[in-house]
Amino acid sequence: MLLLDKSFYKKDKLLGLLPISFGLISGIAVFYFLYFFEAYGIQKGVSYSGHSHLFRSISFGVLTFTYLFFLESYVKPRFQVITLSKQFYWYLSLIVIGNQLIFLLFNFFWNWQEWNIDAYLLIQKEFPLMMFFPLSFYLIIQVFSKEKEIKLSTYLFLKSDNDKDQLKVKMEDFLCAMSSGNYITITYKSNGIVKEHLIRKTLKNLEEELKNYPTIKRSHRSYLVNTSNIQLVKQIKGKFYLEILELMIPISKQYQRTFI
């Protein structure tokens, strides 16, 4: 049986809501500045395209929400934006992309009559200013969430199928599990030392219990590994192996796409 700290799931859900919150706050901020403070020099009357001031303000807000939510949720994870320098360039690029999208939508409403350097520079100046508070607020929440996440202790309570044996392991200390018939050998770290524990359990049952944790993956019909602890992928005589501390774990052909 696998038991996880409930606070882990709560935190995981909160982290998943961050991109939505960022998009919503930013979209509302853009709408607010446009509708109430007439940013971009927006006119209150009907545009050349026949759209009202309210409709145009909402449209700019929706555009801001959509592109920020999409890029933050689906594009950012692919680039592993972890270091401070990468984060700086990532959020700078979000502002630059937003500037161009806003300028295009602005011209759509005015039948491309504002396709000039003055209108372009106005938006390049005002959009970053409008994004200052939403982005600052979002970054503060991210920092706070990561600090809380570090403090969480997530444990696995691994029990044998007959409930006569169990092992309590921190998730980050779990290295791999190797199958041998109806038994599995759990390899884990304890105070910096690699240890093993044999329990009566099938690898299939363990995999089913760990299915909700995305870093635990099968590399071979006899192995489950914690991908967060992989140090290297090696090819030796045409065969691939995962290096986790001093362990060399094989990768079978059907699972190579996961790791290579």
Could you outline the blueprint of secondary structure elements for this entry?
Elements: H1 6-37, H2 53-75, H3 84-109, H4 117-151, E1 155-159, E2 166-170, E3 174-180, E4 183-190, E5 193-200, H5 203-209, E6 216-220, E7 223-226, E8 232-236, E9 239-244, E10 247-251, H6 256-259
Antiparallel strand pairs: 1-2, 3-4, 3-7, 4-5, 6-7, 8-9, 9-10
Helix pairs in contact: 1-2, 1-4, 2-3, 3-4
Plain-language structure description:
The chain is of the alpha+beta class and 260 residues long. It has helices at 6-37, 53-75, 84-109, 117-151, 203-209, 256-259; strands at residues 155-159, 166-170, 174-180, 183-190, 193-200, 216-220, 223-226, 232-236, 239-244, 247-251. The chain folds into 2 domains: 6-151, no CATH class; 156-259, LytTr DNA-binding domain (OB fold (Dihydrolipoamide Acetyltransferase, E2P), Beta Barrel). It is 49% helix and 22% strand. The strands form 3 sheets. A 5-stranded antiparallel sheet has the order 5-4-3-7-6. Strand 3 (174-180) and strand 4 form a beta hairpin. The two termini are 31 Å apart. The model is unreliable at 1-12 (pLDDT under 50).
